[in-house]
Amino acid sequence: MASVPRWLGGRRRRDGASAGPVSGLEARPASVTPPPAVRVAGFDGPLPHLDRAVTVVVTTRSDRHAEVPRLVDTAQLAFGVDADVRVVSYVADAAPRDAFDPRLPWVRSDPVDGLGSAINAGVAPGVGRTLVVVDTSVELGAGALVAFARDVGRPTTARVRTADGAWRNGARLLRPGALPWSDDRAATPDDLVFGADQPVVTMPQWAVVPAPCLPDERTTLTAWTASAAEAIETAVRTRDVGDVVRVVEPGRTVDQATVDVVVRWRDRARMTAGRLGSDVVAGPPLPPWGARPVSPTKRSSDPGGQLAWSIKIAAPAGPEGDGWGDVHFAAELAGALERLGQHVRIDRRDAHVRDDDGTDDVTLVIRGLDRVPPNPASVNLLWVISHPDDVTDTELRSFDRAFAAGPVWAADAAERSGVPVRTLLQATDPTVFRPAAASATTEDAGHVVFVGSTRGASRPVVADAVALGADLRVHGPGWESLVPSSSLGSPSLSRDEVARAYASARVVLNDHWPDMAAGGFVSNRVFDVLASGGVVVTDVVAGLADVLDVPTVAVAASRHELATLLDPARPWPSPAERTAIATRIAAEHSFDARARVLLDAARAERSRLRS
User: Fold this and answer.
1) Which one of 253, 457, 482, 589 is most buried, by most CB atoms within 10 A?
2) How far is CA 258 from the centre of its chain?
3) Residue in 345, 362, 403 with CA at minimum distance from that of residue 603
4) 340: number of CA atoms within 13 Å, CB side?
5) Using CA atoms, how far apart are residues 497 and 602, in angstroms rounded to an integer?
6) Least confident residue range of 15-19, 206-210, 323-327, 401-405
7) Alpha-carbon torsion 244, 248, 251, 257, what sign?
8) Where are any strands of DSSP class E within 154-299?
9) Which helix (H) or strand (E) covers residue 311, if one does?
């Protein structure tokens, strides 16, 4: 039985436990915690340019020190015993730390934090006319090293074969804004690529720039070499210099910082992969952020005007999620898109990533409780309708277009994240919510009505109405101990029953979560009530009057103001005026209106991505 490589044996699970014992390695006391590795983010001042032909920086993971002498010997055999050769150790994947052999040319006697820090620490003392960086996970001979360092006029990466026979020919930007593809084709000539993806890199001294400090090795190398090439207005080259083998290849750790680097490449030119086609298919999400790698593919046909949409929502599958508000929201939006000739499916939480999602043309995330990774095989649209405090700038940057139902939050988020966030208010379905529903006789007629759950606690607008002795009717689960029995309505209403309740009520109460109110996220209940020809009294929402300046919406900032608004003697607009307002709401704030905006955005982004 083959022994387990130390690289694999030293890997640890997220919980910090060992992935398994490794024969021949001495167990370390659990109580001994090494000091944190130092991050080396750049250089102190201008990088010295040395009058030497070649500088070789050997990087090594902290548990592979035994491999350092091999590479140092290879470098000295290639460039002479007096060659400028340096070694830097780095910690990655919670690897153990080997001892430092004092006979080796270490730059420092402690490991740094990650490959990017190792590159920066290695070149900081200065570089010769040509810099070569090679990691101890790579095996190559002196002849290959000499050929690699010859005639270097731009950042260059070697064509590498992995231990299992796969090829690595550099990183190609098939889908700008998504993780680059590691070109794994067997027959690939020397070519220009977006960046390196293996730790065998050379570049002229005038191109050297600091490497980013990221946990993902591939993105570190790609970003570093692409930045170096951009600085001298050229591109990265991949070269075949003979037998270069990557003995071990680390797993990927794509965190938020890594994604922030990748999304900056959204405006870069797309690189095709020859006969493999210009379309891509996405692989499984990579932890911890969930970004998905891509590989090239060919679509069987162009969908033309009909695009395949996947609407992603946070509701769980089955009966558990059937009552969630975003289920109805997605269904009504899907219907509107279908009326525009689109093909739509709704993916709940268990189907956010599917094996067949390479056939999706558009991924639309209705952002509620869950963050959903974009699908780089499609156009990606984000529509934030709730829980805005959970949405990070990185998430906004990850999508081709971002929309938000709160104009105040959208403006702040755009300024903060550096990407446009367009206001797209919530909406209503006027085929369900319409003034005609008022003609039906209901027990809610003439009453103050609230429809919704308790959210696990009393809601202030309902509690205030009870305290004021309002003629209240409450529909929804969990209210038995919170309102008088005479105020209890049905624990569950169909959509049609909700519409009738809104249309026949004297006043409908509404409230918002604090973060939604602060961000100007007007509840879809407000639009539903107005489209029904009803009157709604709501709590304070930032910017409400700017988006809904109609006399059938009133704001109660206090219990005293609520008492005035709930007084049965208070006059409200006539039925004719309410119907006119409902007609306006149906025209301006229907799901059909929102669908047209989203379809225009999807088509524009699809055209941009395919150009």
Assistant:
1) 589
2) 11
3) 362
4) 23
5) 35
6) 15-19
7) negative
8) 156-158, 160-162, 167-168, 171-172, 181-182, 191-193, 200-204, 236-239, 244-246, 279-282, 294-297
9) strand 308-312
Biggest CA pair distance of the chain: 99
CA 325 from chain centre, in angstroms, equals 23
Here the tokens at position 406 are: 């709160």
The structure tokens listed for 164 are 């299992």
User: Tokens 């002849």 appear where?
Assistant: 143
Separation between Cα atoms, residue 192 and residue 205, nearest integer Å: 20
Segment 255-300, tens digit of pLDDT: 999 999 999 999 888 776 555 556 899 999 999 999 999 999 887 6
Q: Rounded to 5 degrees, what angle do the CA atoms 217, 218, 224 make?
A: 90
Annotate 148-183 with b (16+ C-beta within 10 A) or e (fewer). bbeebebbbbbbbeeeeeeebbbbbbbbbbbbbbbb
DSSP 49: B
Rounded to 5°, the CA angle 344-434-343 comes to 10
Buried b (16+ CB within 10 A) or exposed e, 358-386: bebbbbbbbbbebbbbbbbbbbbbbbbbb
Cβ–Cβ < 8 Å for 364, 311: yes
What is the predicted pLDDT for the residue at 458?
77
Q: How confident is the model at residue 325 (pLDDT cuts 50, 70, 90)?
A: confident
The one-letter amino acid code at 507 reads: V
Please list the alpha-helical segments (H only) found in 344-428: 393-397, 407-417
8-state DSSP, 164: T
Using CA atoms, how far apart are residues 324 and 327, in angstroms rounded to an integer?
6
CA angle at 246 for the pair 243 and 249, rounded to the nearest 5°: 165
φ/ψ of residue 547, rounded to 5: -110, -25
User: Closest by alpha carbon to 283, among 419, 187, 179?
Assistant: 179
Strand order in the sheet with 421-423: 343-347, 308-312, 362-367, 379-384, 401-404, 421-423
What single letter denotes the amino acid at residue 565? L
